[in-house]
Amino acid sequence: MRSLTVTIDRFPIAGKFTIARGSRTEAVVVTATITEDGVVGHGECVPYPRYGESVEGVAAAIEALRPQIEAGLTREALQNVMPAGAARNAVDCALWDLDAKRSGVRAHITAGVNRWSPATTAYTISLDTPEAMAEAAAKAAERPILKVKFGAPGGDLERIAAVRKAAPNATLIADANEGWTEDNLAAHFKACADAGFALVEQPLPAKNDGFLGKIERPVAICADESVHDRPSLDRLVGLYDAVNIKLDKTGGLTEALALADAAEARGLSIMIGCMVGTSLAMAPAMVLAPRARFVDLDGPLLLARDREPGLVYEGSIVYPPQPSLWG
């Protein structure tokens, strides 16, 4: 017999996490725990207001599915009874974890990943003044990949140059979080190209990103807010070079794997990303790491406190989860 527990958990962020849409000092997550015959599966999601989600609404959506879950809902059936988004992610990942623990077959094997190796994750530099961002980049300059937040009105050209000067050897990813405009896009692209950025993530609002097909793009462009699941993918071909797959957008690992297949079939590279959550949210995303061009799973590194047990990080190297955490 199955039972479902839904909790809202809070984890303080070390300092402050700032992007173009605002700042946070804690990560508020929803955790789904499914127990069956003494075996326990866990899944975590991070509700995101940008997509019309709230912590309370996501928790309520999972609770509303209690009868089906406790009656034996499968991952395959879940895809048809719940839309893509954070709520489905928590349930889907809990079912993956439960299946792995019941069968004794690790989740990555079930997903078709025969070798689950450590990955190098990007490390995020929050949006701030050029001077503060340069200082943060200098402190993190030994990390091989830095993901740098932009998108504030004015000053991004100075921020781009300052971060590159502070971290001359790092691979840099610019993430504007929809904060640039058609008017300033060319200047920002040129600055990123001149500074040797490897990738620019979501430069324009998703509703306006068709403009990317009308402008020269001297640096590779990755979709984030513009891509959620497979139905959102086709219109991105020709506008973007890569897609950022996040389980909170796809509604779990099941759809994330299918989206990765569909993206690769269309010639798009993959970034596997995250919201600011704990190791429990990062663990299932690690299944996609072996096929990703960039891995951005630094959520726990931004927290003052993580779950126990958590993922093991050695600098920017993140190791696959132990079964006691997930999968």
From TrEMBL:
Cofactor(s) the protein needs: Mg(2+)
CDD domains according to UniProt: L-Ala-DL-Glu_epimerase
InterPro entries per UniProt: DgoD-like (IPR034593), Dipeptide_epimerase (IPR034603), Enolase-like_C_sf (IPR036849), Enolase-like_N (IPR029017), Enolase_C-like (IPR029065), Mandelate_racemase_C (IPR013342), Mandelate_racemase_N_dom (IPR013341)
SMART domains for this protein: MR_MLE
Keywords per UniProt: Isomerase, Magnesium, Metal-binding
Top-tier EC class: isomerase
Molecular-function GO terms, alphabetical: L-Ala-D/L-Glu epimerase activity
Cofactor mode of binding and number, as noted: Binds 1 Mg(2+) ion per subunit.
SUPFAM superfamilies: Enolase C-terminal domain-like (SSF51604), Enolase N-terminal domain-like (SSF54826)
A Pfam family of this chain: MR_MLE_C
Protein name (Swiss-Prot/TrEMBL): Dipeptide epimerase
Similarity comment: Belongs to the mandelate racemase/muconate lactonizing enzyme family.
PANTHER family: D-GALACTONATE DEHYDRATASE-RELATED, ENOLASE SUPERFAMILY MEMBER DDB_G0284701
EC number: 5.1.1.-
